Amino acid sequence: MNIDIYTDDLERAPDTEMYAAVVAFTGISAPFAERIQEGYQLDFKSVWNDSALQTVAAFANTFGGLLLVGVIEKDGRADQIPGIALNGQELKTRIASSIASNISPTPAYEIREIVFPHNTDRHICIIRVQKRKILYFLTKKGCKSPVYIRNEDESIPADAAQLQLLLATRLGPDAHSTDGVFAPLQKLPMELYVTEVNQNAPPPRQRAENFLQLSLMPEESLGIHLDLALEEKTRSIICATYPDLSSRADDPSSNLGASFTEDRSGNSYQLTYSQEYGDYQMRWIVIDNGAIYFVSQIRCYTANEGKIAKAEWSLADVMTHLDCTIEAAHALWKYLGFPGEGRLNSELRVGQLGLLTRSQPEEVCASAFYEQNGPGRRARPLSKDALRGPATSRPRAYAGIDLTFAMRLERRSEAIAVVTNQLLRNLGYAVSLDALRAL
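Below the sequence we write its predicted structure tokens.
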């Protein structure tokens, strides 16, 4: 059984399987440099003490996190898993009592005590702390500060500026939400659209009717200053993330007619990729509050088994767009020093387009724009058996998901699968969620 200790039910498996999950998670049997490292949402403690208590408070005040008690770290990576000798005491009860007595109000958390399969006198505890829009105070006598926050791999006392920010984000209305709900998708920038050739009448180009729109909004305004350095960083992230866009635009002999163009305003930076062959466009917009927007044309013309090319949409391309956009947003937010939570909203308009399929091999997750089978391709084939389609699909779909730092960094496949499943179901399709997770 594969157990994700970041998200799965901590009580779902017996101690032997949970112990194996901790060993796999820490990578203790792997070379030292390949083991998972402490960070904003992960910490190791050899024992339960004041430092561990401060870490729980810091997680609750910052982004939430995972604390493993009974693990010795070295340079931020797991070095040994000796557990804790209890001598008849229950570790879980002792930790729960300590949290309830010394952190006010008591944070939302889960705790699982695990007995070593080869030594029942040794135990480990997993403590998974959730973030809430509440300020948590450490009341234990002798602590340096009543308020702790997480700063990369450290739990530190909040200074005056950090405390002011905590109070503002917890006690005041968020600039991007109403009653705790993230801004809806329709509040996208007016410039967020792509164009296509007008086959009927002038002007030569018109807004595309079939597209995928994505908005990724940080939980709180980042208040960034847009300048040339940030524009260049944004462009380099996009070129490094989306398969082959940079090489296509930089290769004048490819006959694709691919190019990048830029535009900017006082509070936004806009980058557009255009490709004459296939009449394809993508656009990204970065706003000074840290929001990142993406839109892409999804109509493609394909010739299948020698038949005349017809207009269709590609599920694989939509999933690749999702994958790349989440990765690009994570890279940019990390560059800006924001490891917090965000929200992904999506809209897919397929209109009357049919879903692109291949008969050799039978697959419905076929690529059109990301056609190549090399390392740049993201989404892999999805068997037709994994998807059941309606007689007539609906023309548009919406989907969204909350994105934690850990999900953006290590579990993008889960976010992509959940959003894709929502989009397909809203179009009228039924799909295997497990099959989507495997792509």
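The chain has two domains: 15-171, 177-437.
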